[in-house]
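Design job #97: recover the sequence.
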């Protein structure tokens, strides 16, 4: 199933230079994407598509090790392919073409950084599983690549009391169970 999604969503990239690579993984929204907005909200008044395109390079990498558990059914594979295609359309409206590649995150993301001469990679913080391990590997590869490339990680609070510096996913799961129990008649 991962191979099927890869065939649908992966296409050749481009070689334009950019200040930053905005790396999309699981959060495929555009309208309120904090990482994308940190790039497309320049201090200057020039927000034309060509100015935005020169600052940002949007990237989605289909890593079979990471997405194997996500695309465990045909419907899930089709949903991911559709979501990535929709992301490409939404980014296109902003003048930022989506580059979709297939391969291991730890190899592809640094490769795109080198190609684009980017000085930072902007991505969402991951809190568990293959996604968190994959981001850690990318971070290690980027540190080995250059001390000039910065990994800028953003996150959104899921609930009051969430501490981004502490693994909060187990707390969220406990809260979910408590909420279910409280809702029982």
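Job complete. Output follows.
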């Amino acid at each position: 199933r991962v191979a099927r999604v890869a065939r649908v969503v992966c296409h050749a990239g481009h070689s334009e230079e950019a200040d930053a690579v905005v790396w999309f993984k699981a959060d495929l929204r555009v309208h309120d994407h904090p990482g994308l907005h940190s790039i497309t909200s320049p201090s200057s008044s020039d927000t034309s598509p060509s100015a935005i395109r020169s600052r940002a390079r949007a990237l989605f990498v289909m890593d079979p090790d990471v997405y194997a558990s996500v695309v465990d059914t045909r419907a899930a594979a089709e949903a991911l392919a559709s979501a990535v295609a929709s992301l490409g359309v939404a980014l296109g409206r902003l003048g930022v073409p989506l580059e979709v590649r297939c391969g291991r995150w730890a190899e592809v993301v640094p490769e795109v950084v080198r190609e684009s001469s980017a000085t930072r990679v902007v991505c969402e913080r991951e809190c568990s599983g293959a996604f968190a391990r994959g981001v850690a590997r990318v971070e290690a590869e980027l540190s080995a690549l250059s001390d000039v490339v910065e990994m800028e990680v953003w996150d959104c609070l899921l609930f009051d009391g969430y501490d981004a510096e502490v693994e909060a996913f187990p707390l969220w799961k406990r809260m979910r169970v408590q909420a279910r129990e409280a809702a029982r008649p």
